[in-house]
Every structure is written in C-alpha cells, then in structure tokens.
Design brief:
The chain has 357 residues and is of the alpha+beta class. The protein is built from eight helices and eleven strands. Helix 2 (24-37) crosses helix 3 (39-46), helix 2 packs antiparallel against helix 6 (170-185) and helix 5 (152-164) runs antiparallel to helix 6 (170-185). It comes from Bradyrhizobium jicamae.
Length: 357
C-alpha cells in the first residue's frame, strides 16, 4: 500500500478534514476546480450538451464564479468560459447549482432569457446552460428551462471510473475525498458524511409545511433537511417576490422567533433606510448583517417555537408565527414598487462610482 493510501480502519480513526455538512457552495468549488483542471471531466461534462453546444477549437478555458449577467443585475452561479487569444469571450456554458432548494419565482425562466441574450451576442451553438444537482432533489425536476441536467450522482460515478484506472497515490486519495463529497451532496451515506434528520424536527417540519399550505395563500416554503442544525425555514415564493427587481429572501428563524426579509442584490445603503415606509410602531425594523455588515434585513418579531416542547405546543407557536410572516410579506407587497425605485437609484449611484452591486 502506498504511503498515500489509507485503509478503511485508518479512515474510521482519522476523519479526513471534511465539513460536517456538504453545501451548495461545496458543489460550486468542486466544479470550479474539476472543470478547470481536468480535461477528462470537462469533456465528459460538455458531452451532455452535444446537441446544442459546440466548444470552440484553439480557445482557452476559464471557470468563473458569479459572473455578471447581461439581462439583469443578478449573477450566474458558474460560467465555463472560452476565450480567444485576444481575450474575447467566444463561448460559454452557464451552470446553475441546486442541492436542496428549488427555484425562486421566475428564476429558471430568467436563466433561459439570459442564455438567449448570450446566444444573440456570440452565436447559437456557442452558449448553453446546465442545471446541476442531486437526482433526489424533486424540487428542480430535470430543469426544462436548461439545455441539460447533470446529476451529482453521475459525477460521482464518473470519478469512480477515473479512480479505478489510477495507481495508488495522492491523486487517487484526492478523488476518494471528492467522491465522498459528491455522495454527500447526492444524499447518500458516505464514510465521512451522513445526513442526520432528527425525528422530532421531521414531525415539526411536516406540521409547518401543512400549516403554510392551509393558512398562507401565495406562499411556498422550501423543504428542510430537518437536521439538528436546520433552524431556519426559507420561502421560495411569497406575495410580491416576483415583482421585486433584485434578490430578496424571506426566512423564518423558527427557534429564535424572528422573521426577516434579506435584500441580497442590489445592496441597499444605510442611508436608504430612512426612505423606507416602515411602520411607525416599530414592528418592522432594520438589521444589518453580512461579513461587511452591509446586507439589510427587515425583521419582525414572532413567537419562538420551543425546541423541546410537545408537538401540540410547537404547532400553536407556528400558527402565531405565520401571522408575523403574513404581516412582513404584506408590508413588502404594499411597498415593493418604492423598494424598486430605491434599489434602482442605488444601482445607478454605484455605477457612477464604478462599483458593481
């Protein structure tokens, strides 16, 4: 056995440096490295697009994270970009990763619109889109608005084939870790990651989903893993979300008793808070978060759901919390047009300063 090769017993004793839970950004990081560094993986990935995409010859490849879009002020998860020797973009594959969540309102349709715009710019067979995610994620289906769906499961299987052809050594061990990551993302049991839904939280999640469906018309709550760290519920759709020209998230921190609207893009400046038509009684109040403390959340206090109480008491707390969610969403719907005006002005100001939101 090579000095690089670990036995099964050694793996069980020494947990390889690995996150307790695999997330969407881990899939993005995997794709960035693998598409850039491995021509075998890149060629296999591109073969899923053989009927609609022709990779250019004599072009160099650059895998890019969060490139700006042509059609709106949001960003694409990843772009596999092909550049000429003059550094002109001559082809691109736009990649969207979805591990556990579904699409936000109109998100998939906006992706199709973005691909159409790029095709008009560089050529019909020079641009394509790929949806990547676990085959178990029923919230995304096979992505009818995308040119291809590549499952995490397929990627793991491809790496396994590569691994079997390799001699023992460092590269083989690196592939072992990547396979384990992909299997974690796919929701399978792996040596280094094992999803641990908590039975009590599964029951609470079922109650929560049922109450949202029956009491909050026009809302769609995303599914949850119901694990011991799954403390928030996120809403993919809510009244007014499809009218806002940007990225706003509605989430419920169920055990903290906080409901918030988080404005991801464009960023709203602290000076803009005074322009918001916030209730005079302070029920909707601003809070700043993010690494640079520059992301605005508008919060409402809600009844905290007790962690260790019986399910009946938890259901009563959820019912009360849904009223806070309705209150915040109602305020948002009534003010979405003024929010669009404020965010548009902020975008123009940032553009004048040479910044990209």
């Amino acid at each position: 056995m090579s000095s690089f090769e670990l036995s099964a017993s050694e793996r069980s004793k020494h947990t390889i440096a690995f996150m307790r839970s695999a997330r969407e950004r881990d899939l993005d990081h995997f794709l960035i490295e693998e598409l850039q560094a491995s021509s075998d993986f890149r060629d296999w990935f591109i073969r899923h697009l053989s009927d609609c995409f022709s990779p250019p010859q004599n072009a160099y490849v650059r895998t890019e994270r969060s490139p700006p879009r042509l059609t709106d002020d949001r960003q694409t998860d990843l772009r596999l970009a092909y550049y000429s020797r003059d550094d002109d973009l001559v082809a691109a594959v736009l990649i969207e990763s979805k591990v556990a969540d579904g699409f936000q309102t109109n998100q998939a349709e906006d992706y199709l619109r973005e691909v159409t715009a790029w095709r008009e710019a560089v050529g019909t067979r020079q641009v394509a889109s790929v949806l990547v995610g676990p085959s178990k994620n029923k919230l995304i289906g096979k992505g009818p608005h995308f040119d291809a769906f590549v499952s995490v499961d397929e990627m793991a299987a491809f790496l396994k084939m590569r691994k079997h052809r390799m001699r023992a050594g460092e590269l083989r061990e690196r592939l072992t870790i990547r396979i384990s990551l992909l299997e974690a993302l796919a929701g399978k049991t792996s040596e280094q990651w094992n999803p641990q839904p908590v039975a009590a939280r599964v029951s609470l999640a079922d109650v929560y989903d049922r109450l949202v469906q029956t009491q909050l018309s026009g809302f769609q709550v995303n599914r949850t893993s119901a694990g011991k760290s799954a403390d928030d519920r996120f809403y993919g759709e809510f009244p007014g979300s499809n009218q806002f020209r940007g990225d706003v998230r509605l989430k419920h921190r169920i055990y903290e008793g906080i409901v918030c609207l988080e404005f991801r893009r464009p960023k709203l400046a602290k000076a803009d808070v005074g322009k918001l038509n916030l209730p005079a009684d302070g029920t909707v109040y601003p809070h700043w978060t993010g690494k640079a403390n520059d992301t605005l959340q508008l919060q409402v206090r809600a009844t905290a759901v007790p962690k260790l109480d019986d399910l009946g008491s938890q259901e009563t707390a959820v019912v009360a919390s849904l009223e806070a969610i309705r209150q915040l969403a109602t305020w948002f719907l009534e003010n979405v047009h003024s929010l669009n005006q404020i965010s548009t002005l902020e975008t123009l100001h940032c553009d004048d300063r040479g910044l990209t939101l």
